[in-house]
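lol ok so funny story. i was supposed to be doing the assay writeup but got distracted and ended up predicting the structure for this chain instead. priorities right. anyway since i did it might as well share w the group, maybe its usefull for someone
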Amino acid sequence: MAEILVVDDDTSTRKAIGNILKRDGHQVIYASDGVKALSVLQDNSQIALIITDVVMPNLDGRELVAAILRNEEFSKIPTLIMSAMVTVKEIKSLLEMGAGRFLAKPVSPDRLLEEVESSLVHSVRSASLAQRSDDGK
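and the output, tada:
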C-alpha cells in the first residue's frame, strides 16, 4: 500500500486518521504543522499522498499547499485537505490553487478511505512509485 503523510496540529486527530489508514494497510508518517511536513517531504521520496488540516501554527495548510505546488517533485503528490474551520470560498480557493480534494471534519472512516483510494488511483507519483517497486523485485 501507500506511504501517506498526515499533517494536523491536533494529536488525537493525527492518530485517529493514522489508525484508519494503518488498518487499511498504509504506512503513515506524521507532522504537526506545514514546516515539519516540508521537512518530512524533503527526507522521504516515497510519500504518495498528503492529508493536511488547514488551520495550523507556523505554516498552515494553505501555505503548505502553495509550497508543495512550487516544488516540482512535491507538486506531483496529491493533497487531500481536511478541515472543519474553513468557508466554502476558502475550499474553492484551495481546490483552484491545486489541492486535489477537500473533506469536512469530522469524516467517517469509510469516506476517508474512499477519498484516499481515489486520490492514489489518480496519482502520477503513486503510479511511478509502484513502478519503481515492481522494478526492484
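The CA atoms of residues 12 and 34 lie 17 Å apart. Residues 11-23 form the longest helix (13 residues).
back to the writeup now i swear
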